[in-house]
Amino acid sequence: MAANVDELVVRVADICTYKWDVIRNRPFAYLASGFAGGAMVVFGATLALAVSAGVADLAVGLANLLMGLVFMFSLVIIMVSGMTLVTADMYIGIIGVFHRRIGWGSFIWGIVLGYIGNFLGSMFFMWLISKSGSYAYWPWLARAHAIGVAKMGQTATQIFVMGIVCTWMLQTAAILYVKADSDSAKIVMAAYGPLAFVAGMTEHCIANIGFLALPLFQQEVYLQAAAKMGVEVTTILHWGFGQFGWAHNQLYTVMGNLIGGILFVGLIYQFVSHPDRVRKLYAAKNNFMLKL
Amino acid sequence: MDYSAFNPTAWLVFIGFCAITWLAVKAFHAKYPDYPGHRDEDSKQ
Questions:
Q1: Rounded distance between C-alpha atoms, residue A184 and residue A187, angstroms
Q2: Closest to B3 (Cβ–Cβ): which among A101, A156, A256?
Q3: Would you list the domain boundaries of chain A?
Q4: ipTM value of the model?
Q5: pLDDT < 50 stretches in chain A
Q6: What total number of domains does chain B contain?
Q7: Could you tell me which of A33, A41, A209, B34 has the fewest CB atoms within 10 Å of its CB?
């Protein structure tokens, strides 16, 4: 039977102890697990690009559905393998702070280290993809560029709110993964997160690191292909701040993602749990670490 | 300001979120000083 909400927050606090023990004692192992987690996210992004090229013109929403369906196993493989995805772990840290497992400094350091690992994995994997021939054909070049234009062309507020929505959905799935007991229930819960945030057209900082870097890595190839096709290119993407900038999207996505996961998942589950019942659970416990 | 790195709406909401989160933890610990009733080895460090 799945854990109730009181048992759930205690499980999450135990996971927090495990994760921050790795961060404190083996930071490079945590960085490596973040690298793997970041790459696993963009496994999904790559598949999403592969299946959605050309589909957007056929039926409104179909490309989003296809992207979500192939993206959804990214969180499953991250959670089952025990790797790190910072946007799935923010709620863990804040519940750990409530349970006095870690302090604010450790919490912030863990988030920063997780982000750095995820950044390196996401960026490196997409750089590899940009060197392939498979995605250097017009439908995929055009699709990657169109996604870049759509995501990086939004205003700060538009990106920010969809960043909040993204981790609200994703970390709800991640915390339900912890709540579930059977393997099949865990897989279904973890799959829901990426399906929802990708099909819902939200903004996820780790996915966007690589997803939006790809059209930038390939921009020269795209421009050459567009010239051959006789397609007029009206928008040039760039790495900096400002409209159509990678950093512009990343900044507001990170800010939104922090709010969605910490405020709307971590704090809410913690406040819904009953302090007295949680204390009783602690009184009966003798193991305070849960490995994922 | 829509494409600035210092969009006032987003930054004000974000600062408000940081303040709310910090105050929520502070108020919770003040209300339940012995919560969760056990301090494991990690928290003693």
A1: 5
A2: A156
A3: 5-282
A4: 0.93
A5: none
A6: 1
A7: B34
